[in-house]
Amino acid sequence: MYVLYAAHMPDKVYECGLDAAIDVVGGKWKPMVLWALATCPRRFGALRRELPGVSEKVLTQQLRELERDGIVHRAVHEQVPPKVEYSLTPLGVTLERALAPLGEWGEQHLDHIVAVRGAG
Length: 120
What we know:
By secondary structure, the chain is of the alpha+beta class.
């Protein structure tokens, strides 16, 4: 058992490391945000265009949670209008690399996944 001591989740108990990792990337859009930020920093609008279907509200929430967890860095450049860029932290880079094999698995088995999901 692992215990996380954090202000937003006091005494959160994880069963294993995978449980903790899933808690960090849980949600439909977080893995996709990591994928989008893997190549270069992006502004909010660019992320929205790269992730069709995500609402502004949900993307904002997911980015805030990833920032809170130390996965994403939010840089505000003081200019008019203000420029905000999101990038992966070193911890975020390691998480994105850990998810890459999962993405490869999905690509290798995409036909099967589509076939069985479409049959239901």
